[in-house]
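Here is one chain, start to finish.
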Amino acid sequence: MPLPDTMFCAQQIHIPPELPDILKQFTKAAIRTQPADLLQWSAGYFLALSQGDPLPIKDRVELSMATQKTDTGLTQGLLRVLHKQCSHEACVALPELEHKWRTLCLPVEKLRALIGLDPCEDEIEWVKFLALGCSALGGSLNSAMKHFCEILTPDPEGGQARIPFDTFSYVYRYLSRLDSDVSALDTESYLAALQESVKNGMIGLSDFFV
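Its structure:
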């Protein structure tokens, strides 16, 4: 004999007091981030929330500039998210990086292609991976450095995007070594010329990028 349908009244249903705000913040985050796979991103979002980790949320809505033929989904906004999640350690373990990459619904083949530019076994220096990601966005070394500065800078958006010159030169040397068209001599000459315009150990976009 089938059991009768259970009847509930409003007084019988307990709604956790924090639920409305959790759902509100989740909805706002999903709209801002625009994940390609909402379920996959949601799993990563709530896992990070439960563990008290930085959430995979973009600062603002962002439209991908990639074309349909070469669309990898990678944008400066997503690199910013990864930077917030990974920059607390000098190096990031590759399995952890892949998990965060998948959470952002990015193709794993693209991740492996980036790491393949500077192969490593178990972990990668975060600043180097961020530089590789910026190189994937920029069509030139200077363009990659522009993205890098805009992600790292504490300056307000639209400002000079200043970062320490030591960090800039470290990353510029790293990327130039991976570019067969740029010689070590040219790299050092360029950095020496730039250093003349450096103030208080900081370099901004107007110093090197037009």
